[in-house]
Amino acid sequence: MTHFCTCIMLVLSLPAAAVAKETVTLCFEAQDVLPWRTEKGGGLNFELLKLVEQRIDVQFDFQSIPWKRCLAQLKANAVDGAFAVSYKPDRRELGEYPGGENIDTGKRMHIDTYVLLRRKGSKVDWDGKHFSNLDGAIGFQLGYSVGDVLRAQNLEVDEGSQRADELARKLIAGRLAAAALGGSDAAGLMRGPLAPQLEQLPIPIIEKPYFLILSHALVASKPQLAAQIWSAVEQVRNSPAYKKLAQAEGVRH
């Protein structure tokens, strides 16, 4: 009996840090999308989520996998969440956005744009409402939400590339009329070796907030934890520490 009591007292005397943290598994796209994230866990998205971990004493288990598979895993409740995900109505089937029916953009991770790239010398154009001088398909990355915007204009599209550089090479080779890319991906290409053969049009196709979305199972079973995570995302994004990081990268958040 004395031995049993001693054990109980030892457990009770353990520091709070020894108590197991809540682990939340998050998947993200298996490629670099600067400055937001890298396959190896760098970038502003990870900086934000690390600060969230500290704020609410949660531990994130990050999984880098191809984007369409990441979203499929979320729908199957095989992961607890995915980031960074823009809003599309049909994505409500995959998981939960902060705010539920009324999306709370204040709880976004960041804002980014989609822009149009063309081959240098091409006459393809975009005036903010309409595309013109298209002589082929507009390419975009597999599973990316900009595809819905392009299809809504009844345009020929090509969704056959997973990476931004693949898309750019198809464009340069004349297999596409233009390419719709995330603003940060386009900026990376325009700083790289392919830039002399490309032109970026000045008017964005669309600007979107990007979210951490959580699985239906997590929100149903642990609604308080889900609310804590989303609130912490907003608090961290507005914190001086994170703002300093974002400003250093010259991006909106």
How is the secondary structure organized here?
Blueprint: H1 2-12, E1 22-29, H2 44-56, E2 58-65, H3 67-75, E3 81-86, E4 110-119, E5 125-126, E6 131-132, E7 138-141, H4 146-152, E8 157-161, H5 164-172, E9 178-182, H6 183-190, E10 198-200, E11 206-214, H7 216-221, H8 223-237, H9 240-249
Parallel strand pairs: 1-2, 1-3, 7-8, 7-9
Antiparallel strand pairs: 3-11, 4-9, 4-10, 4-11, 5-6
Signal peptide: 1-20
Organism: Duganella flavida
Keywords: Signal
Tell me about this structure.
The chain folds into two domains: 20-110 and 210-249, 3-Layer(aba) Sandwich (D-Maltodextrin-Binding Protein, domain 2); 112-207, D-Maltodextrin-Binding Protein, domain 2, CATH 3.40.190.10. Strands 1, 2, 3, 4, 7, 8, 9, 10 and 11 form a nine-stranded mixed sheet that branches. It is α/β, with parallel strands linked by helices and 253 residues long. It has helices spanning 2-12, 44-56, 67-75, 146-152, 164-172, 183-190, 216-221, 223-237, 240-249; strands spanning 22-29, 58-65, 81-86, 110-119, 125-126, 131-132, 138-141, 157-161, 178-182, 198-200, 206-214.
